[in-house]
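Long-time lurker. I teach an intro course on protein structure, and each term I like to show students one example going from raw sequence to a predicted 3D structure in token notation. This year I'd like something fresh instead of my usual example. Would anyone be willing to generate the tokens for the chain below so I can use it in lecture? Attribution to the forum is fine with me.
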Amino acid sequence: MDTPMDLRFTPAQEAFRREARAWLEANAPEPRSLPSLDTAEGFEAHRSWERAMFDERWSVVSWPEEFGGRGAGILEWLVFEEEYWRVQAPLRVSQNGVFLLAPTMFEFGTEQQQRRFLPAMASGAEIWCQGWSEPDAGSDLAGIRSRAVRSADDRGWLLTGQKTWASRGAFAEWCFGLFRTDPEAERYRGLTYFLIEMNAPGVVVRPIPQLDGETGFAEIFFDDVFVPDDQVLGGVGQGWNVAMATAGSERGLSLRSPARYCEAASRLVALYRQRRAKDPVGAGRSADAVAQAWMDAEVYRLATLWTATRVLDGGSVGPEASANKIHWSETDLAIHRAALELLGPEAELHGGDADASWLDGYLFALAGLIYAGTNEIQRNVVAERMLGLPRG
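-- Reply from a regular --
Happy to contribute to a lecture. Here you go:
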């Protein structure tokens, strides 16, 4: 008979939870009290929050102590995320750095790169944006055309091209991006992963206003931007492998912890109970959608614990990250869609007692099917690499 899985956290992990809960309850800003991080004012307010967490070693709990962390394990990080989302603490303005680039830098970075970049990343002193997508190469990352050639003094590279939809690009200090260093190589070869200072000569940033006027994205132009050799991550021509490690973090464990969706699902259930008290018949029409959304969030939590356990045993995430990304993005959308159905026309109200977070969350959830690689592309990965199906 199979041994049942023990889903209980250890006494030490529960003690860690109590410490994290106490600190967050005493220090986290009130929910949605900071200005939007897609504005200059909000960006700096969120940066200050990152610094406050860093000063008490809460910003990157799973990192080694020498880089500002607590040396905690992946399960402790999941515990911290549960407490973080429970108090509805601010979105992480540093997420591109601490959740995407940092795992890649731990794997591929030199000791010098780690010491130079990781502490400033953890403290929020340097915020990173992602320079991957291009006007003609979004989900087809291997189709990028931006290029890099050796500088005349042979000390580095000159970057030319354009990146678009760079999250945090309007205000970030650094960018990590892929450029083609060998135009004659096959699509997935000849790419190199660069770390680029945004105020370097030749970098031009053009913010992209959203419908609400906020600049959550930017397009970035590179005109013979010099990048020294020590700002190549993972080796020349190895960019695809390095980028896939970052993508694995984006789709897998790092970027979207299950706590984000479990908390939203709990709020959805509370909303359902509230609406049912006022309109039992109307709320009843959404009962199945609410229950399914809650179950999907719980499935994601359990699947993440299984994945974390496998990683702790020496395994890796692999192509399962694509299935993971499909699930969390569609769960996010389902949670918010069910909330809008419960609210009806009231979902569009702002101000007063109205909770506009459901509508805002729904609009953002729509983007989840696209960023981190469109779900159509991820389904191809699942079909080919997990199920062994032939290419269409």
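Some talking points for your students: Strands lie at 128-131, 147-150, 156-163, 174-180, 191-197, 203-208, 217-228. The first strand starts at residue 128 and ends at 131.
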